[in-house]
C-alpha cells in the first residue's frame, strides 16, 4: 500500500498507510499499530508533532491547493 499524505486546508497533515516517523536525531516515534495519524501544521498543538486539533481554536488559516513543483535544480 502506498503511503498517502493529505494536507488539509486550515488543518493538519494526515498520513495514511504504512509509515515510520522519526525526529531530527533519528529517534523513532512509537505510534503503535496505527496506520493513520495527523501531524500538526499550525504550531499550536500540545502534542507536537501530532495534531490535537488546537488549530480549530487558534484561527489557523492555510489553504491547501495542489500544484506542480518546478523541476529539481541540476547539480553542477
Helices and strands in order:
Layout lengths: L3 E4 L5 E4 L19 E4 L37
Antiparallel strand pairs: 1-2, 2-3
Counting helices, strands and paired strands, the structural category is mainly beta
Largest sheet: 3 strands, antiparallel
User: Terminal Cα separation, in Å?
Assistant: 36 Å
Radius of gyration: 15 Å
Number of domains: 1
Mean pLDDT: 95
Beta-strand percentage range: 15-25%
Fraction of helical residues: under 10%
Q: Look at the structure and name the CATH superfamily.
A: CDGSH iron-sulfur domain, mitoNEET-type
Detail the poorly predicted runs.
none
Written overview of the protein:
The structure is a single chain. By secondary structure, this protein is mainly β. The protein has a single domain (1-66), classed as CDGSH iron-sulfur domain, mitoNEET-type (Ribosomal Protein L9, domain 1), CATH 3.40.5.90. It has strands at 4-7, 13-16, 36-39. It has a three-stranded antiparallel beta sheet, with no helix packed on it. A hairpin with a 5-residue loop joins strand 1 and strand 2 (13-16).
Short description:
With 76 residues, the chain is an all-beta fold. The chain is 0% helix and 16% strand.
Any descriptors?
76 residues; mainly beta; Ribosomal Protein L9, domain 1; three-stranded antiparallel β-sheet; 3 strands; 0% helix; 16% strand
Amino acid at each position: 500500500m502506498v503511503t498517502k499524505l493529505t494536507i488539509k486546508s486550515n488543518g493538519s497533515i494526515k498520513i495514511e498507510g504504512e509509515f515510520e516517523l522519526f525526529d531530527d536525531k533519528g529517534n523513532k516515534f512509537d505510534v503503535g499499530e496505527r496506520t493513520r495519524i495527523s501531524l500538526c501544521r499550525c504550531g499550536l498543538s500540545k502534542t507536537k508533532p501530532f495534531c490535537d486539533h488546537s488549530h480549530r481554536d487558534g484561527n489557523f488559516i492555510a489553504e491547501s491547493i495542489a500544484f506542480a513543483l518546478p523541476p529539481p535544480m541540476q547539480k553542477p
